[in-house]
Design goal:
Elements: E1 10-17, E2 23-26, E3 29-34, E4 37-42, E5 48-52, E6 58-64, E7 69-74, E8 80-85, E9 91-96, E10 103-108, E11 114-119, E12 125-130, E13 135-141, E14 149-153, E15 156-163, E16 168-176, E17 179-187, E18 210-211, E19 215-216, H1 220-223, H2 229-233, E20 246-251, E21 256-261, E22 266-270, E23 276-280, E24 300-306, E25 309-314, E26 318-325, E27 328-336, E28 341-346, E29 353-357, E30 361-365, E31 374-378, E32 384-389, E33 396-401, E34 405-410, E35 416-421, E36 434-439, E37 445-450, E38 454-459, E39 467-473, E40 479-484, E41 490-495, E42 499-504, E43 513-518, E44 522-531, E45 536-545, E46 550-559, H3 561-564, H4 578-581, E47 584-588, E48 594-597, E49 602-607, E50 612-617, E51 623-624, E52 629-630, E53 634-637, E54 644-648, E55 654-659, E56 663-668, E57 674-679, E58 688-693, E59 699-704, E60 709-715, H5 720-750, H6 758-761, H7 766-777, H8 783-797, H9 801-816, H10 818-844, H11 861-880, E61 882-884, E62 888-890, E63 897-899, E64 903-904, H12 908-935, H13 947-965, H14 988-1041, E65 1072-1076, H15 1106-1110, ...
Parallel strand pairs: 47-52
Antiparallel strand pairs: 1-60, 2-3, 3-4, 4-5, 6-7, 7-8, 8-9, 10-11, 11-12, 12-13, 14-15, 15-16, 16-17, 18-19, 20-21, 21-22, 22-23, 24-25, 25-26, 26-27, 28-29, 29-30, 30-31, 32-33, 33-34, 34-35, 36-37, 37-38, 38-39, 40-41, 41-42, 42-43, 44-45, 45-46, 46-47, 48-49, 49-50, 50-53, 51-52, 54-55, ...
Helix pairs in contact: 12-14, 14-19, 19-23, 22-23
């Protein structure tokens, strides 16, 4: 039986579904979450047990098979982590963390009570728990990091492996007694090529380098302008390499990590050193059995480790085993599942391998026993779409998944009877998506609708072998729902866009489509009500009215006549006629999301806005008269939220309500009381998708939206009357259906199985094929046409039912217009042939000349519209916006051309900014001048200068000024006085202002040149006008001279008058020949034709020849007139390219005139006609013409043209002439001669005038050419000046950019410093706190040691009443400890993690093992003979206390060692932080110095003379430490220095004279002071003088001199006596010296003898040493020395023992005396 948690009036029968989260809860049971439930499956019996999560859907999930517990999180606000044990399914504990939304991962440790969790948005916190004590040990946040897997190291629970889609991180759990900390160690994963690139710190480079010109080299983050945490992790794209993507990982017994990758590699990672090596880098080798597998594209999806090796699997469906030795391995194939494998999981005893596939199938495999895997479960991986009960509804039910998997379930226990996959029924590349499903009441058939508009009919008469028997392709609209009426006569299919199809549900009619209707509004839902009394089926359709917040019901009826006489009720297109369905419409007062109708015109609707359930009675008395809206009769509040739907039971007694919250409510339809409530699904899983009642009302199937769970409910408590009503309705319904059900099932069973055959599914009409065959046979198809024809045939082969109906109607219409269709086909065929010919020619062209396929599109209206728009944009941006249009001026005789500067008009903001800067500059100049006047002091004396030197300096200053300014813009119309000096640009504001001023100077230079250019243009126009004027005279002269010479007449070209490109002259629009060209493929400009250009229905292109393409110039479009050939856009080319037309045509065009221009032209033509008519009636002109040829004055040229008429007698012979005739003839000859001479003279004059005019034209044009050459030079100089100013701007911009980069870098460092300081403060606090804890723990440890020693010292005292020999034996037993073999976890299994490392946490476990071993020693057989059993018990208790004390000391020692190691790591980290902070301060100092250099070390531009400079020496001076200073500053400083020097000399002379007087006065003062002191001394001597005996004798003795002389003589005698005595002493000393010298010589001789003896002794000693070495007696001496040393140590130990024994003796004596005093009474 299934263990379930009973709630409310409905009970949980069974749950079906699957999840990729699965694990072993013990050696024989697996479990996995499914929706709100956790399903436990016994591997051997396949019995299922269900645990329901009361709070909703199960979130994160983890299993610990060793502890037999399961952990999961609920998906709600502030979720909990629940831990249950198995098989009791009792809640062990509940963990509450700081997660606000959800947990994504949970992981148990292999041993120990530890659980790791990872929360999702917004915390992203990794936490470690002690779940047994419900304690959060530590946590760490990783903002924005999404994890894919998490696991503990089985050998060391203090290591965690954290994996996401692109990285792997190892977290160490560090302990400090009771505190725990998480420390991150990221692993550098190799790239896709298999190389591990060394990590380069782009944020903090090791050294600061500097370029002497470009400045300091800064990190990339500073160049990118990043500040904050993003700057530390920023990496440019060229540095980033795509790394492999981890998919799965596992730990080994040596604490290594094996990681599988999406690219197929397998990596080995050392968890301590973080070294990464490739275990498998390339594709797998070919299989030995010859199976064809796509192993080159293998993705490792599953991995696990055991003693046998590493097991891996992936998308190929094969389980491999790797026997690994180092980095070498041997690979074997274990089993082939034929499905992509997602998980490999070993049981806790490592005897069973669980294989989970991505398709929801679970296999069990026993390594080493057999090769084939056994199937455990086959539930499917896709979410359930719908479920329904199979007729009669009390034994089987059918479900369908979104992927098209149909399953038949046994209602009693949920056993899967059979399975059918519809996606394998169609051999198509598109994925199969089911959208609806329903079971037919009248037969054992199931209808399944798809997203493509198909309906599959499945035969389930044999539940073990379902099969597809028919398919109908209704339309291309997805099927949204399928509904049968209760009698199983009709199948109503609802599709998108308001389409509702009516099908005959009986297999005997082959599921005929009866017709369809189309509703205007959006269909929200559909329900069917059967009226058995009138043999009608009512279809209730709920519509959404977009205009108002209301709902609308449309109800139509279906009668059985539709199935018998269908053609009567449908039109040609298959739509049902309104008279056949009797459509009724009802507007409701609330917007509903679902509605159901009872048989008594009662409608229940679910309103999701409030929410509540509305009850309507469709009668006129409940209708609002004004608006024809039905009002709700009753509103029942609902506790659900979100959009929901209603479902009615077959007997119409129960109403089920479901919504997005996942809670199912069942109401009684009469009272609307809630009779049952069940939390089947959750809001996080999308809520409930479908609910269905069984025909007998006993069961309900509830399906979730996204949680993948199918829940079967059964009534637990129900009233007997309701149960009887449901059973009665079921039996009555079966009585109606029994006869038809048996017949239809027989037909259904006899139907053949349907298979996908494109030819058979096509229901095309044969007569149409025969009609179209002759036409198609005459057309030759190309390859492209064949591909298109195949595509069309593939599309038409799967024709929908609607398309077939439409095709039949179209065929009938086609027969009516066959002739017109034939003519159109012939015309299209010709056009098609021409286009194919052109496309074939295009394919033969080179790639550079090929046209795009879209160029052959005949519909060019849209393209022309785009070109016109682009034309307007180009004209507006490149022409209209220019205040000075770009143009050129050419010379007459020289190939020289000068262009002006096109200029855009400056905006108002630019002018305002410029004016503001100029005003600021003026203020600064005035301020500087005033400050100089205030601060500076002019020297009183100035050095005289000669006038010539002054003039030379003025000239030099002017030259220097140009050099310092760095440009010659002042000579070309610019005012440089407003500029800042180049040496004064220190602040950012000054540099920005300087850029604007320089741009203004460039603008002025261009403007100045444009003025000269305009003058040259005007001059050329004047010259052309003069030449034209003179050419008129030249033509007259040539006409008079009858010379056929070509007159040179200059004209302005299109480059000189660019406006011509935008207008069309009258001469260009007459009847001309227009050439047609192909467009170039890579044309960079577009044909620019103004609105006044000629319009023609054909597109005019051009083609550029190969020679032109070789020049690699930009392609241009040309409008091709033979005589007027000019470029429309002249931007890149100077000359017209050679063009070869493809063909030409003659067209007659007219100039396009606007209506205003046309009216004006008509008015001018009318005036001209009137003027001409008036001129015809002028009498004066007629008279002048008659009398004088129309002129008032006859010119000389005309007279010379007149020939003199010969005399009339000239025809006669001279002999018959008379005298008068001869005279007349002589006069005639004279006149002729004079006329000829006059003509000759006039001819020479005309020739002279012609030469003069030609010379004048030549002279003036050459003069203009010279002017143009000067203008060209001016242009070159202007360009030079502009480039100079632009170079200044570039240098200033670079300095601004560098300054900004330095500021950014400084901000980065300050942010980084702040971060490191916080870490330093935190580290310091941690160290201080740890020190305090260690000091406190050391006291505890020492106390434990002291207590342990006291226990041992008190043993003999406690057992002092025992005899000595027994006490000695007990003491030996007291010191004895059991030998405990290291117990390996799961010793008898194949677990690779048996011997895992211990830690301080293993204290209790080790103590328990030791106590169990002590039980053996406590047995009575180990008790010494003669010992009382009570004393033995007391001894055992004392020994256990001693053992516990020793274990406690060991545990505390381990904890203290961990604390000290933790402290040392924190100290190392603190030192590292200190070093990093020092480096940051050092770099900040360097940055400040660089910023100071940047402000002072300016980039200055100079103008230097070009030429050769000669130096006296070949060594160039070193200017690295030179400073650039203005010359005026030096000169002012020199003048100041000289003035101050003169002042100093004058003051020094004055001081010298004054000092002389001072010295003299000081000397006199000193002299007088000495005299004063002398006199004072004399007075003092007189006062202190004493009278001695000598003074008295001198005063009393009369002959004092004789007395003195007598004394002198006596002293001389005494002196002579002493001299004699001294001579005697000297002689005696000389004797003594001689004797000593003799003794010295004797000693020297003796020493010499001793030295000889010493040499002999040294020789003997060396000989003895050689003998000693040769005898090798050193070891003997060393042994003797070692023995002596040991004797000394032994003596020392003995003395120490004696002292200890004496101390103990004294202690014992004192203790004896104390006991005597305690026991004996005092007397």
């Amino acid at each position: 039986m299934i263990n379930v948690l009973m709630l409310s009036c409905s009970s949980l029968r069974w749950v079906q579904g699957f999840s990729d989260k699965i694990g072993f809860v013990n050696n024989r049971t697996v479990c996995y979450p499914c929706g709100n439930y956790i399903i436990f499956v016994d591997i051997e019996t396949k019995k299922k047990t269900v645990l329901e999560c009361e709070m909703g859907q199960v979130g994160a999930f983890a299993v610990n098979g060793n502890s037999e517990v399961v952990a999961f999180s609920d998906r709600k606000l502030n979720p909990f982590i629940h831990i249950y044990n198995f098989p009791e399914l009792n809640q062990v504990t509940e963990l509450k963390g700081d997660a606000q939304l959800d947990y994504t991962l949970l992981a148990f440790s292999f041993t120990g009570p530890y659980l790791a969790s990872y929360s999702s948005v917004p915390e992203f916190v990794l936490s470690v728990w002690n779940w047994q004590e419900n304690i959060l040990l530590c946590s760490e946040s990783q903002p924005g990091m999404t994890a894919t897997s998490l696991s503990f190291n089985p050998m060391n629970w203090q290591q965690l492996c954290f994996v996401n889609e692109s990285s792997l991180t190892i977290w160490d759990i560090e302990r400090n007694n009771e505190d725990h900390y998480l420390k991150q160690k990221p692993v550098k994963i190799p790239d896709e090529e298999g190389s591990v690139t060394p990590h380069e710190d782009l944020f903090s480079p090791g050294s600061q380098s500097e370029n002497p010109y470009y400045g300091p080299v800064l990190p990339i983050s500073a160049l990118a302008g990043l500040v904050g945490d993003e700057a530390e992790t920023f990496m440019p794209r060229d540095v980033i390499k795509a790394s492999v993507h981890p998919t799965v990982h596992c730990w080994t017994a040596t604490s290594e990590i094996y990681m599988g990758c999406e690219e197929g590699q397998i990596l080995a990672i050392n968890a301590e050193t973080l070294n990464v090596s490739f275990l498998q880098q390339g594709p797998l080798p070919a299989l030995s059995d010859g199976k064809l597998k796509d192993l080159e594209k293998r993705v490792v999806l599953a991995m696990t480790f055991s003693k046998d090796g590493l097991y891996t699997a992936g998308n190929e469906g094969i389980v491999f085993r790797y026997e690994i030795k180092g980095l070498q391995y041997e690979m074997t194939v274990c089993t082939d599942i034929l499905q992509p494998i997602s998980s490999l999981i070993f049981s806790p005893d490592y005897t069973i391998l669980l294989i989970v596939t991505t398709e929801g199938t679970i296999y069990t495999y026993k390594p080493g026993h057999k090769e084939e895997a056994d199937k455990l479960l086959d539930t499917g991986s896709s979410c359930f779409l719908s479920a329904d009960f199979l007729t009669p509804g009390n034994e089987y039910c059918v479900s369908v998944a979104i992927s098209g998997e149909v399953q038949v379930w046994l209602l009693e226990d949920g056993t899967c009877v059979s399975k059918l996959s519809l996606d394998t029924e169609e051999n198509i590349t598109e994925s199969f998506t089911a959208t609806a499903m329903a079971c037919c009441p009248s037969s054992n058939s199931v209808a399944v609708g798809t997203e493509k508009g198909e309906i599959y009919f499945i035969d389930i008469t044999e539940v073990e072998t379902p099969r597809v028997v028919h398919r109908i392709f209704l339309s291309k609209f997805p099927v949204l729902s399928l509904d049968y009426d209760q009698t199983g006569q009709f199948l109503i299919s609802r599709a998108t866009q308001g389409h509702i199809f009516i099908l005959d549900a009986r297999p005997s009619t082959l599921f005929q489509v009866l017709g369809y209707i189309v509703l205007a509004d959006e269909v929200l839902g559909l329900s069917v009500v059967s009226d058995f009394r009138h043999d009608l089926v009512e279809v209730v359709v709920l519509l959404k009215v977009a205009e108002v917040q209301r709902a609308r019901l449309e109800i139509f009826c279906l009668s059985s006549a539709l199935t018998t006489d269908n053609e009567k009720y449908v039109n040609e297109q298959g739509m049902l006629q309104p008279s056949a369905i009797k459509m009724e419409q009802y507007d409701l007062d609330y917007p509903l999301s679902s509605a159901v109708k009872l048989k008594d015109n009662v409608v229940y609707g679910y309103c999701g806005i409030a929410p509540f359930i509305c009850k309507y009675h469709l009668s006129e008395e409940h209708m609002l008269k004004d608006l024809s809206v039905f009002l709700s009769e009753k509103r029942t509040p609902s506790k659900q939220f979100g959009p929901g739907f209603l479902c009615l039971s077959p007997n119409s007694r129960w109403l089920a309500s479901a919504a997005e919250d996942g809670i199912l409510f069942i109401y009684h339809t009469f009272t609307m009381d809630v009779i049952a409530q069940k939390h089947c699904h959750s809001y996080q899983g999308g809520g409930i998708r479908s609910v269905v009642f069984s025909l007998d009302g006993r069961f309900m199937l509830v399906n979730g939206v996204n949680d993948g769970a199918l829940v079967c409910l059964k009534w637990k408590r129900i009233k007997k009357i309701e149960k009887k009503e449901a059973a009665f309705h079921w039996r009555s319904l079966l009585a109606i259906l029994n006869q038809s059900t048996s017949n239809e099932n027989a037909v259904l069973k006899s139907m053949p199985e349907w298979k996908f055959e494109p030819e058979s599914t096509s229901e095309s009409f044969p007569e149409e094929k025969f009609e179209e065959a002759p036409e198609s046979s005459n057309v030759e198809l190309t390859e492209e046409d064949r591909s298109i024809t195949k595509l069309n045939s593939a599309i038409t082969s799967e024709m929908t039912w609607i398309d077939q109906k439409m095709k039949k109607v179209m065929r009938e219409e086609t027969q009516k217009f066959a002739n017109q269709k034939k003519e159109l086909k012939i015309g299209i065929k010709k056009l098609r042939t021409n286009i194919q010919k052109m496309m074939h020619e295009n394919e033969q062209m080179p790639d550079i000349e090929k046209l795009e396929r879209q160029e052959f599109n005949l519909d060019i209206e849209e393209q022309n519209l785009a070109n016109c728009y682009l034309q307007d944009v180009i004209k507006r941006e490149c022409w209209d916006s220019m205040c000075v249009k770009g143009r050129a001026v050419k010379c007459f005789h020289i190939a020289c051309e000068v262009k002006n500067y096109p200029l855009k008009e400056r905006s108002k903001e630019e002018l305002e900014t410029l004016e503001k800067i100029l005003q600021l500059k003026k203020i600064e100049a005035v301020d500087l001048k005033i400050r100089k006047e205030i601060v500076e002091i002019k020297p009183e004396t100035e050095l005289p200068k000669e006038e010539e030197e002054m003039e030379e300096e003025v000239v030099a200053d002017n030259t220097a000024s140009y050099s310092l300014v760095g440009s010659l813009s002042s000579q070309y119309g610019a005012d440089i006085s407003v500029l800042y000096h180049q040496l004064d640009l220190h602040s950012r504001e000054q540099k920005v202002n300087q850029i604007i001023l320089l741009q203004d100077i460039i603008y002025k230079v261009k403007t100045a040149f444009n003025k000269e250019f305009d003058i040259a243009v005007q001059q050329k126009e004047h010259e052309i006008a003069r030449v034209k004027e003179r050419n008129l005279r030249i033509r007259e002269i040539l006409a008079q001279l009858d010379l056929q010479e070509e007159v040179w007449e200059p004209a302005l070209t299109d480059d000189e008058v660019p406006e011509h490109a935008l207008t069309v002259q009258d001469s260009e629009v007459s009847e001309k020949q227009i050439l047609l060209f192909h467009p170039h493929k890579d044309s960079s400009l577009i044909l620019l034709i103004s609105s006044h250009c000629v319009s023609h229905e054909k597109t005019v292109f051009l083609k550029i020849t190969k020679d032109q393409r070789k020049k690699k110039k930009s392609s241009l479009y040309y409008i091709a007139f033979p005589n007027v050939l000019r470029p429309c856009v002249n931007m890149f080319e100077e000359k017209k390219p050679d063009m070869s037309p493809i063909f030409s045509l003659q067209i007659k065009v007219e100039k396009y005139l606007t209506p205003q221009e046309r009216a004006k032209a008509e008015m001018l033509a009318k005036l001209e006609m009137e003027r001409r008519l008036a001129a015809l009636d002028n009498e004066r002109l007629r008279a002048l013409k008659d009398m004088m040829g129309g002129v008032l004055e006859v010119k000389k040229e005309d007279i010379l043209k007149i020939d003199i008429p010969p005399p009339s007698f000239i025809s006669k012979s001279e002999s018959v002439w008379n005298e008068e005739e001869k005279k007349i003839f002589r006069e005639y000859e004279k006149k002729v001669q004079e006329l000829n001479e006059e003509r000759e003279k006039h001819k020479r004059a005309l020739e002279a005038e012609l030469k003069k005019l030609q010379a004048s034209i030549q002279e003036t044009t050459q003069s203009f050419d010279e002017t143009m050459c000067k203008l060209f030079e001016r242009k070159v100089n202007s360009e030079m000046v502009i480039y100079q100013e632009e170079l200044k701007i570039i240098n200033i911009l670079y300095s601004l950019l560098l300054e900004e980069e330095l500021d950014t870098r400084e901000a980065e460092l300050h942010h980084f410093l702040k971060k490191k300081r916080k870490e330093k403060v935190k580290s310091t606090k941690t160290i201080q706190c740890t020190n305090r804890k260690i000091d406190a723990y050391i006291d505890t440890y020492e106390n434990a040691i002291a207590e342990d020693k006291i226990l041992e010292s008190d043993f003999r005292k406690d057992f002092a009443d025992i005899p000595a020999y027994l006490l000695d034996k007990l003491f030996k037993l007291y010191r004895r400890r059991p030998r405990i073999q290291k117990v390996k976890i799961l010793l008898d299994t194949a677990s690779p993690y048996g011997d895992h490392s211990g830690s301080a946490e293993d204290y209790q476990e080790g103590l328990n093992l030791l106590m169990k071993a002590m039980d053996e020693l406590d047995k009575p057989e180990y008790m010494p003979n003669g010992l009382d059993p009570s004393l033995w018990d007391r001894f055992c208790l004392a020994r256990r206390n001693k053992v516990e004390s020793e274990q406690l000391v060991k545990s505390k020692a381990l904890t203290l060692a961990d604390m000290q190691a933790f402290l040392q790591r924190r100290i190392d980290e603190d030192e590292k932080l200190k070093s990093e902070i020092g480096d940051i301060f050092q770099e900040l100092t360097w940055l400040r110095e660089e910023k100071m250099k940047l402000q002072l070390n300016l980039t200055v531009q100079f103008l230097l003379k070009q030429g050769q400079v000669e130096l006296e020496s070949t060594e160039l001076p070193d200017f690295t430490d030179a400073i650039l200073i203005n010359k005026s500053v030096i000169e002012e400083l020199n003048c100041t220095i000289m003035a101050e020097g003169e002042k100093k000399i004058a003051s020094m002379v004055e001081c010298k004279d004054f000092s002389k007087g001072i010295f003299q006065l000081e000397w006199e003062h000193k002299k007088m002071k000495m005299q004063i002191e002398d006199l004072k001394q004399k007075a003092r001597d007189i006062l202190t003088l004493r009278v001695s005996k000598d003074h008295q004798l001198f005063l009393t003795v009369p002959n004092y001199d004789s007395r003195v002389s007598h004394q002198v003589s006596m002293m001389e005698q005494t002196l002579s006596v002493r001299d004699e005595l001294h001579q005697k002493n000297v002689k005696n000393c000389q004797k003594i010296i001689k004797e000593l010298e003799k003794g010295i010589s004797l000693k020297e001789q003796a020493n010499y003898k001793l030295s000889l003896e010493l040499q002999e002794m040294l020789v003997s000693v060396s000989e003895r040493e050689h003998i000693f070495k040769a005898a090798d007696t050193q070891l003997v001496f060393e042994e003797i020395a070692q023995q002596r040393y040991q004797d000394i140590l032994r003596q020392k130990k003995l003395r120490d023992n004696v002292k200890k024994q004496e101390e103990q003796f004294r202690v014992l004596q004192a203790e004896t005396e104390r006991w005597k005093l305690r026991t004996l009474p005092m007397i």
